[in-house]
Design the sequence.
């Protein structure tokens, strides 16, 4: 069984400030991890993913995330927030072995607000 | 962008009526999924398909059925809509690589 916890349903930052969105996961097998972004009235767009190999992964729009196995975390960061980053962000986990390796489990989402 | 369309994009219906939502893909991907999105719940899997005529239940499947007669189409049916099924419904597709999923634009369903 897998689960995802996103700490903070709403995060507010100033433009130019660091963005940190937290994600912790639970998985009985080595996970694949994803961050998705959803802009208002749109579908979800893949931001970045961790599968195997390098634990620091870079995504689109200047975002990156680091897989920390010891902490079961996959936090999303961006050094300097832009107004266009305002959106809802979802962390998701998928197992890459076993019978359910084709399903994602999503966190409940974090709404990012960027203040001018 | 992945070639995924959903129809209709918006629908208002009355309690007790049947509703069918359609997801169409042009990517020839094997896996297709239906999710619902509700405030405070994130995305929850309703049903998924791992091939033509091969489907299985997700975590919130009660009141929903699906069918996949062609690789490109995945239908979600609410046999008798209830107000609790008011939601935004997303279709997603996935190939064989790392379970990465691509999402459609969504269907906003209101059941009065």
Sequence:
């Amino acid at each position: 069984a897998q689960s995802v916890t996103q700490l903070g349903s709403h995060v507010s930052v100033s433009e130019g400030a660091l963005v940190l969105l937290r994600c912790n996961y639970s998985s009985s097998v080595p996970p694949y991890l994803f961050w998705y972004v959803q802009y208002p009235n749109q579908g979800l767009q893949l931001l970045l993913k961790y599968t195997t190999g390098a634990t620091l992964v870079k995504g689109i729009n200047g975002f990156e995330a680091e897989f920390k196995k010891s902490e079961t975390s996959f936090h999303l960061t961006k050094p300097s927030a832009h107004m266009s980053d305002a959106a809802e962000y979802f962390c998701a986990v998928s197992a890459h072995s076993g019978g359910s390796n084709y399903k994602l489990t999503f966190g409940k989402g974090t709404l990012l607000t960027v203040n001018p | 962008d992945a070639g995924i369309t959903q129809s209709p994009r918006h629908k208002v219906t009355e309690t007790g009526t049947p509703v069918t939502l359609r997801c169409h893909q042009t990517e020839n991907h094997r896996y297709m999924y239906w999710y619902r999105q509700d405030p405070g719940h994130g995305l929850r899997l309703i049903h998924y398909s791992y091939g033509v005529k091969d489907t299985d239940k997700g975590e919130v499947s009660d009141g929903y059925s699906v069918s996949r007669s062609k690789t490109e189409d995945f239908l979600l049916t609410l046999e008798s809509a209830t107000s609790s099924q008011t939601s935004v419904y997303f279709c997603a597709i996935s190939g064989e690589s790392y379970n990465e999923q691509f999402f459609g634009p969504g269907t906003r369903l209101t059941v009065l």
